[in-house]
């Protein structure tokens, strides 16, 4: 027992050391890239007007933070992303449940979902602008259209792969489809739902940015497209950097949710 405990402690220590090394290497790599970037622009190896630089990006961020415009644009993009993500999640789960409940409907609609999922959504954005106008509604619908069809297909496939023996047991005990859905399908699909949410949060952010490129007067996507048009590339690089941070934070939150779900299943 003591030998097992010691070997386990040694394994944990080794694992932690490895993780610390990985984190250290990641930090060193990130700092090295920023240093080379800054050095390159200062020494003329890179055109600072085109490529900007870390110091110019930081200066732009400070100036925009002082007048509040930076937080305004970040808030708009976050609001649209979270709203789109929640709608994608609710719609995907609800439609997948309906398709599981009515197998004939699933067979009828499946090719249409596959077709809509493979359709380039950026082609739909101009049409949505004509239909819905140049507003936040268009941006959110654009984001939903990018993720919802693939999410429905994945969730429905997962629901259909539920344990048949458990479903038969529910039926034998006098249960109906509601009981199967409540006690077998949904609980057994929680890992799939969470993993699908992890994919959808990134797709929602991408969809929002595409929508903001075409139909926005605020947001990080608006800053990128407007900054490139008036050659304020510091705005563009700052917006891209902030988008990377937002994507990383949102993914980390869902990763924590996934670990919590795994522990409580």
Radius of gyration: 24 Å
Estimated share of beta-strand residues: under 5%
Number of helices: 12
Main sheet specs: none
Q: How many runs of DSSP E, i.e. beta strands?
A: 0
User: Average pLDDT across residues?
Assistant: 84
- SSE order: HHHHHHHHHHHH
Unreliable stretches covering 5 or more consecutive residues: none
Describe the structure.
- The chain is mainly alpha-helical and 265 residues long.
- The protein is built from twelve helices and no strands.
- The protein is flat.
Layout: helices, strands, pairs:
Layout: H1 2-42, H2 48-51, H3 54-66, H4 69-101, H5 103-118, H6 125-132, H7 136-160, H8 164-172, H9 177-188, H10 190-215, H11 220-229, H12 233-263
Short description:
This protein has 265 residues and is mostly helical. The chain is built from twelve helices and no strands. The protein has helices spanning 2-42, 48-51, 54-66, 69-101, 103-118, 125-132, 136-160, 164-172, 177-188, 190-215, 220-229, 233-263.
List its traits.
12 helices; 0% strand
């Amino acid at each position: 027992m003591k030998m097992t405990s010691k070997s386990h402690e040694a394994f944990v220590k080794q694992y932690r050391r490895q993780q610390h090394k990985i984190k250290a290497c990641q930090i060193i790599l990130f700092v090295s890239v920023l240093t080379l970037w800054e050095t390159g622009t200062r020494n003329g190896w890179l055109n600072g007007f085109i490529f900007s630089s870390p110091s110019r990006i930081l200066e732009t961020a400070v100036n925009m933070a002082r007048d509040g415009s930076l937080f305004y644009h970040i808030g708009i993009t976050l609001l649209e992303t979270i709203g789109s993500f929640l709608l994608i999640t609710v719609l995907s789960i609800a439609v997948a449940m309906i398709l599981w409940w009515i197998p004939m409907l699933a067979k009828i609609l499946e090719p249409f979902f596959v077709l809509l999922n493979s359709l380039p959504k950026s082609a739909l954005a101009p049409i949505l602008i004509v239909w819905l106008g140049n507003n936040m509604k268009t941006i959110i619908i654009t984001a939903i259209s990018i993720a919802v069809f693939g999410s429905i297909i994945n969730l429905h496939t997962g629901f259909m792969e539920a344990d048949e023996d458990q479903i038969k047991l529910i039926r034998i005990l006098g249960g109906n489809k509601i009981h199967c859905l409540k006690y077998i399908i949904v609980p057994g699909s929680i890992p799939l739902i969470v993993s699908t949410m992890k994919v959808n949060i990134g797709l929602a952010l991408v969809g929002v940015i595409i929508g903001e490129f075409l139909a926005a007067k605020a947001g990080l996507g608006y800053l990128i497209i407007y900054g490139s048009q008036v050659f304020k590339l510091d705005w563009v690089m700052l917006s891209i950097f902030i988008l990377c941070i937002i994507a990383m934070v949102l993914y980390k939150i869902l990763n924590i949710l996934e670990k919590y779900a795994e522990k409580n299943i």
